[in-house]
Amino acid sequence: MGVVRFRFDTTRPSTLHATSLRGALQTRCSIVHIKNPLLLQAGAVFLGAAGFLLTLAPSAPFTKELGVCESGAVRDVLAGHIILPRFLPGPIVHVPPLYWWIAALCVKALGWNEIAFRLPSLIAAALTCAIVFAWSGRLGLRVGLWSGAALLLCHFFLDAARQPRMDAMLAMFVTAAAVSLERAIAARAQAERDAAWYFAAAAAAIGLGALTKGILGIVLPGLVVALFLLVRGRLGELLRFDLIATFAAGLAIGLAWFLAGYRLGGRPFLEWQVQMNLWSRFIPAGAGGAGYCAHPFWYFAPQILRGFLPWSLYLPAFALAAWPVAGGRLPEAVVYTLCWFAALFIFFSSSHGKCLVYILPAFPPLAILAGWAIAQVQAGLDTRRRVRQLFRAGSAIIAIGAAVIVMAAITVIGYGVSAKIALRLHPTDRRFLELLVGQGLSAAFLLWAIVSLAGVGFVLVGLLRSVPGGSQQKRGDGSADLRQVAPPDQGELPIGRRPTRSQVRIQSLPLTRGRLGGGFLTACSERVRRWLSEMHPEQSPGRLNSEPFSGVLLAWGTLLIAAAGGWCWFAVMNPALAQSETLKTFARQAAALVPSDARIGHLGLGDCELNFYSPRPLEPISQISCADDSAAEQYVIIRKQDFDAMPPMRRTCFTAELEATPNDSIGPRLLIRRTRP
């Protein structure tokens, strides 16, 4: 843990002043030593990530989230069925219930609401960012910061962080296990005493991962280590006692729940967990496997590139930067990260069932690779021209895309969308456009547009700085204004510091007013240069117009675009869509309307949010009839399209008591009451 020691100097006499606050004892405090500052910085990253995630409307209503269908397990945990909770009504849980245990604790503390169900995933996502920062920070503070930022601000990770499911928690434990195992193996090779602590941390992460999603919590870290040792020609180390003991301890933690579940559920529990939820997902449906989420082997490749936007546009630059050159060698941590990503990608791609959320644990290593590439370009460590060109090309595409989206949004708000174009869109996309037009030039929209365009401006300035000769501004007569060496005691001091004799100061004349506002652009560029030079004081004044500093501008521009886009999508647009589609009000009105001694049936495909928001249980039924059956439900919730499809004679037996008209593709829902046989 981080330890900060202070030295106090009380040798100076203090003086009292009646008219000021200087009567207190004046002491001087200087930090002498900080042990493990990376942990303190990781804590700050966690707080920053958690703060950003909490701005993404965690209290927005649920609609079609898959995790809402599993909320019955939390009700069952709260009812006392801790080992084998059930989805009420429905079968027992399909994975170990660690997520639902934690969600139940959040419900106890915060009540039955959306925040309590999303909070475990939000905290897990923030912790994953902190773990990624702490481990990749060994390659440099800049690598850690950009790795954490790339992970936090990619679309797929933000989406998973808001889902009330166990996937973000599994990604956190797999990440913790992978980095702990790498540190343990490296510490053991150097005969460090910390190796035992790293192995213990890995065992705990593996065990908790097994309690989150079963055998995956053990298999995924094992594949990462196995592939790394294979690449390094040290596969025999898999048989070392410490590594075997680590996985055995993690297996024991996860196995405790399986043994308790088998004692309660018997053979059906074992068949459900092993055959249905493990084996059947890896074999084709024709061989007895599950038929859902069936996709080709390459399915996850485009999904990862799309989900990792905008940072995936920097992956070509990373690929070239990592390409072996004569006399060059990748850092061991980068090699391990490559093995980490490859092991998870190959494993999930080889499975017959490929649900999109499965690939989430592969995003932390991908973010580390992107962060390393960004840091390489910023620091000027990779001097290959193609790497810098690919980095600039990726930044340019991001900026152009952001500018086009902002301009298109302003056009849609101002002029609307033609009916011909709207008919070609997906129904959800049409609803998003309707919400965008309805919001107009709201404060949230303006904030998103301004921050996005600021990011575009950063990228533009960075591209101009990186153009050969771009730091030489043209005079009005067409001659170049070259960099001039100034004595250290003359002129303006750069960035508030006195330059040394080896440093230079750039004296540039602004562009003439007649060249498309070039003078304004130059002035803005100079202000940005000064601000970023304070953010990156390691860049000497002479390098502020160089390639490395242009990389700083490009990366910061992408950061602003990603942060603004993620916030607008998940804090503004998605909650607005959920508010228009939710059945929250309908569920509570139906429960209040039905007499307390009557049961409520639910016919047809279930709307999971109805079960979540209804304060009373909804009994699933497969059919309704006019027969006078005292055991039958007198009140039924049904989709209007299903009710209209019933025979007319049967419909006459029921009366619609309540109707909900959510703005979704399913249509209205009805609460009907049986009136006569």
Strand-helix topology:
Blueprint lengths: L2 E7 L18 E8 L1 H17 L18 H7 L19 H13 L3 H23 L4 H12 L2 H7 L5 H23 L5 H19 L2 H16 L9 H36 L23 H8 L7 H8 L9 H19 L12 H17 L5 H31 L3 H6 L2 H13 L3 H24 L6 E2 L5 E2 L36 H18 L11 H35 L2 H10 L6 E4 L4 H6 L4 E4 L13 E5 H5 L3 H4 L2 E7 L8 E6 L3
Parallel strand pairs: 5-6, 5-7
Antiparallel strand pairs: 1-2, 3-4, 7-9, 8-9
Helix pairs in contact: 1-4, 2-3, 3-4, 4-5, 4-6, 4-7, 4-14, 5-14, 7-8, 7-9, 8-9, 8-10, 9-13, 12-14, 12-15, 13-14, 14-20, 15-17, 15-18, 15-20, 17-20, 18-20
Describe the structure.
- With 677 residues, the chain is an alpha/beta fold.
- The protein is built from 24 helices and 9 strands.
- A hairpin with an 8-residue loop joins strand 8 (654-660) and strand 9 (669-674).
- The longest helix has 36 residues, at 241-276.
- It is globular.
- 39% of the residues are buried.
- The model is unreliable at 1-33, 470-518 and 537-545 (pLDDT under 50).
Please give a handful of descriptors for the protein shown:
677 residues, alpha/beta, two-stranded antiparallel ribbon, 24 helices, 56% helix, disordered N terminus
